[in-house]
Structures are given as structure tokens and as C-alpha cells.
């Protein structure tokens, strides 16, 4: 797993209710925005990497699996609808890329 993906997953896990997964629309929107921003910056999105790191960050296995599936779909170019866009993902990925350079 890339360091950027690992740190991005940590950020997502800090602001999401990991016990309910993507049930809350804002948590779902943040995850989608984050994965889109990562993809746009060339970070590979592997279902297994995202799932494993989500579990390490405290996501229950079934929610981690859903998160990994979402990441892989977005990484593969699937279009997703974001109910509450806030451009959160782009800001986070920008911060992480700036910190790593």
C-alpha cells in the first residue's frame, strides 16, 4: 500500500463513524471524494489494500469490504454520485502530497 493511501485511510477513519461504515451520507460522500481525488493524483486503489487498512483502523470487516469495493470501482473509472459534495477529498490528498514532498 502506498504511504499516501495509508495516510488517506487514516484521515477518513478519523472523521467517519467506522462502526456504521458508509451508512451516513456524509461518511459515504467523504469516502467517494477521497477515492476520486486519490485516483486523480495517480494513487492506485486496490480493494484489498483499502479493506486491510480499514480493518487496521477499526472498521468492522463487512464495512471494510464495502469500502474496498467502492475504492476499486472508483479506481477502475466507475462514475459515482456524491450526495453532499464538499471537496473534502481533494483538500486531504493535497495536504498529504504537500507533506510528502
Description:
The protein has 101 residues and is mainly alpha-helical. The protein has one domain (3-89): AhpD-like (Up-down Bundle). It has helices at residues 3-15, 25-40, 47-56, 61-75, 88-100. The chain is globular, with a radius of gyration of 12 Å. The two termini are 18 Å apart.
Question: Strands, helices and their partners?
Answer:
Layout: H1 3-15, H2 25-40, H3 47-56, H4 61-75, H5 88-100
Helix pairs in contact: 1-2, 1-5, 2-4, 2-5, 3-4
Question: How can the largest sheet be summarized?
Answer: none
Q: Could you give the count of β-strands?
A: 0
- How many separate helices? 5
Summed up, the domain count is: 1
Q: For this structure, what is the CATH class?
A: Mainly Alpha
- The CATH architecture comes to Up-down Bundle
Q: Choose one word for the global shape.
A: globular
- Note poorly predicted spans: none
- Rounded Rg: 12 Å
Helix/strand class: mainly alpha
Q: Secondary-structure element sequence? A: HHHHH
Q: Can you give the mean pLDDT?
A: 94
Amino acid at each position: 500500500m502506498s504511504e499516501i493511501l495509508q495516510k488517506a485511510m487514516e484521515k477518513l477513519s478519523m472523521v467517519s463513524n467506522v462502526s456504521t461504515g458508509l451508512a451516513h451520507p456524509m461518511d459515504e460522500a467523504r469516502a467517494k471524494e477521497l477515492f476520486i481525488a486519490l485516483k486523480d493524483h495517480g494513487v492506485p486503489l486496490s480493494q484489498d489494500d483499502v479493506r486491510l487498512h480499514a480493518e487496521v483502523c477499526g472498521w468492522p470487516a463487512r464495512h471494510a469490504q464495502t469500502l474496498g469495493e467502492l475504492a476499486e470501482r472508483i479506481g477502475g473509472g466507475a462514475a459515482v454520485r456524491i450526495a453532499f459534495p464538499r471537496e473534502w477529498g481533494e483538500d486531504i490528498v493535497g495536504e498529504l502530497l504537500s507533506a510528502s514532498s
